[in-house]
Amino acid sequence: MKYVVQCFLLLLPAMVWAQEKEENLVTAHAFTIADCIEYAKRHNVQVKNALLNVQIQQQTNRNITSAALPTISGNAAFTDYLQIPVSVIPGEIFGGAPGSFVPVQFGVKYNTNVGLNLQQLLFDGQVFVGLQARKASIEFQQKAYEVTAQAIRANIYKIYYQLVAAKTQLEILDANIVRAKKFESDAKALYKNGFAEKLDADRAAVQVANLEMQRMSVQTQIDNGYVGLKFLMGMPIKDSLLLTETISEDQLKEQLLDNNYDYNNRLEYQYAMLGKRLGEYNVKRYKLAYLPTVALSGTYVHQTQRNQFDMFKKGTPWFNTSIIGLNISVPIFDGFAKDANLRKAKLELQQTENNIADFKNQVDNEVKQAYNTYKNAILMLDNLKKNSNLAEQVYLQTKKKFESGLASNTDVTNTQADLITAQTNYINAMYTAIIAKVDYMKATGKLP
Questions:
Q1: In this structure, are residues 233 and 39 in contact, taking their beta carbons and an 8 Å threshold?
Q2: Is residue 3 pLDDT above 80, yes or no?
Q3: Which of 394, 400, 385 lies closest to 414 in space, CA to CA?
Q4: Long-range contacts of 221-226 (CB under 8 A, 24+ apart)
Q5: Which long-range contacts link 142-146 to residues 24+ away (Cβ below 8 Å)?
């Protein structure tokens, strides 16, 4: 035993190290947008809880079903009368004086019985409405799950493609840094040879520093974006995530000409309609509460009575009792509780109908605003793309003039600043177009 303990103590550090290594293991993922959405379906807490609500409703339905099924219970009892109960009967029966009473013990010392009880509901309006509503209840929770998953999906689309677009932003910044460093090198060389002022070289250095700081800021935003995407998907933050898809202007314009929509395509509308169906069942339930309830009951008892503790002795008699009954309960007056419940259910149903009508107006409003924003975002994207290309041409021409001595260092610095501004505006327009497209597709119920 001592040897075993010593071996365990020697192996303990290795076991702890192995466990820590397993906990620190980093999993690498290379995901398309579809992969991210599928991963979120399995790991996002909100989506998982919404799916659990479906399973909870399934168990609730089983409970509702049990009310319509027979209930069978068994029982057994043993009674030892330490003192047998005494009753008094008129003494005249035994020849006594009129008005006298004689104490008599009825019964035996030991009583034993075993039995079965059966209860079967034959009719209860509220129970049968509950049975009818089971399917709608499951569909209601399933639709709630789909609505939750859609909200997560929309945010994943936005973050995913913004991070994809951010790669282009980094590429542009890297290209600008290369150009700025080349210009800085040229400016320093001209200064050393006496063809430029020190101020020109310093301006070029400041431009490089500004671009590098801007790149650091963008990189931090991208890193935080990846953290946010992982959290939204339910992925461990320590895991590595690579986005494999790209985004283009043509992809962003795909839904621009499709401005048709149907309320039934909106998951929220489908969810509300299912809520209305459940409200109608609730009204029906309270209407049927005015009807009688009918139930069948049955009892079977196997019993024996003894003065000696020999009831399990072979050959001793046991006696059987069987009972069957029909129970009808007729509601007469309950202090207007059923009427209050019925009126409340009708008012709640009216609220649901009002909310559905209002939701249609909300969809119209969302679609119109989302389409206007989407269309404007695409127009801005096109214009800013042209402006960015133009700014790049101006910069390159100015750079050539500078190299030929026909433009000043200030001219190059200004056109470079204009180019960076135009490129930044273009990237921001792409971000805006991505969000606008996702919002429009969600508003029209066409989000994949």
A1: yes
A2: no
A3: 394
A4: 221/166, 222/163, 222/166, 222/170, 225/159, 225/162, 225/163, 225/166, 226/163
A5: 142/54, 143/267, 143/270, 143/271, 143/274, 144/50, 144/53, 144/271, 145/47, 145/50, 145/51, 145/53, 145/54, 146/267, 146/271
Q: For helices 33-43 and 45-66, give the axis angle rounded to 10 degrees.
A: 50
> With bands split at pLDDT 50, 70 and 90, how would you rate the model's confidence at 4?
very low
> How much is the pTM?
0.84
Give yes or no for a contact between 112 and 52, defined as CB atoms under 8 angstroms apart.
Answer: no
Q: Which two tokens stand for residue 213?
A: 């700081």
Topology annotation, domain 74-123+294-330? Outer membrane efflux proteins (OEP) (2.20.200)
The answer as to CATH 1.20.1600.10 being correct for domain 26-67+125-291+334-443 is yes
Supply the DSSP symbol for 316: -
- Least confident piece of the model among 118-122, 377-381, 405-409: 405-409
Is residue 157 a contact partner of residue 447, using CB atoms and an 8 Å limit? yes
Which of 264, 46, 292 is CA-nearest to residue 155?
46
Residue 263 DSSP code? G
Average pLDDT score over the chain: 90
In whole angstroms, what is the distance from residue 257 CA to residue 99 CA? Answer: 108
Task: Classify residue 19 by burial, with Cβ atoms within 10 Å: 0-12, 13-18, 19+.
Answer: exposed
Interval 101-117: pLDDT, tens: 888 887 888 899 999 99
CATH 1.20.1600.10-classified regions of the chain: 26-67+125-291+334-443
Alpha-carbon separation of residue 291 from 137, 287, 347 (angstroms): 24, 8, 22
- Is residue 125 within 8 Å of residue 285, measured between CB atoms? yes
Where in the chain are all domains bearing CATH 2.20.200?
A: 74-123+294-330
Tokens 């169906």 appear where? 277
Band (pLDDT 50/70/90 cuts) for residue 11 is: low
